[in-house]
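haha ok so turns out i had the wrong file open the whole time. this is the CORRECT one, sorry everyone. sequence first:
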Amino acid sequence: MPHDHDHHDDPHALLPPEPALRVKALETLLTQKGLIDPAALDEIIDTYENKIGPRNGARVVARAWCDPDFRAALLENATAVVSDLGFYGRQGEHMVAVENTDAVHNMVVCTLCSCYPWPLLGIPPGWYKSDAYRARAVREPRKVLADFGVVLPENTAVRVWDSTAEMRYLVIPMRPAGTEGMGEDALMELVSRDSMIGTGLAVQP
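then structure:
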C-alpha cells in the first residue's frame, strides 16, 4: 500500500510520478494541436468524480434497503431499474445486482482489464485496475478481503463475480444493524464505494 511521506529536501518530490508525467505531456501535446479542450477534460473528470460518483450507487443501495419492492426489482433486472433512475450510459449498459447475506459475501473483479460500472460508482480506484487485485481476487478472495480489513465468518461463502464488457456488477451490502429508523438519505452515508465492490462493508452508524 502507498504511504505518504514528506521529503521537502528532495527537489524531485515536487514532480508527479512517471505515469502522471506521461499523461500531462500527452494532454499538453493534444491541447497544443487543438485536438482537446482542457476545460472539457476537467468537466468530464468532475462529472465522474462528483456527479456520477459512488453517491449514485449509494442511492440505489439505500433505496433497496428501504423498499422491498425496489430491492426485488433491482435483483431481477438491475439494468432497467438503474436506467429508470437515470444511471446509465458508457460503462453502465448491462448491470447485475448481487446481494450480500449472512450466507454469501459477493465481490467483483475484472480479470481481463478494468470493466467497472462508472455511472453508479464513478471512476474505478487504482487498486481495482492493478494486476495484483485482478489475479488474487479469484485465487485467494478471503486473503484479499482481509487486506481490506474484511474478515468474514468461516461459514460465509465468498462469491467472486468477473465483470466484463457485457456485464457489470453492483454489490448490495448487508444493511447494518440498528438502522431500522433511518431514512434513505441517512442510509446513503453508510454505503461506501468499496462496499458496493465487495471489498468493504457498510459503515456502522
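The domain at 52-197 is CATH 3.90.330.10 (Nitrile Hydratase; Chain A).
again sry for the mixup
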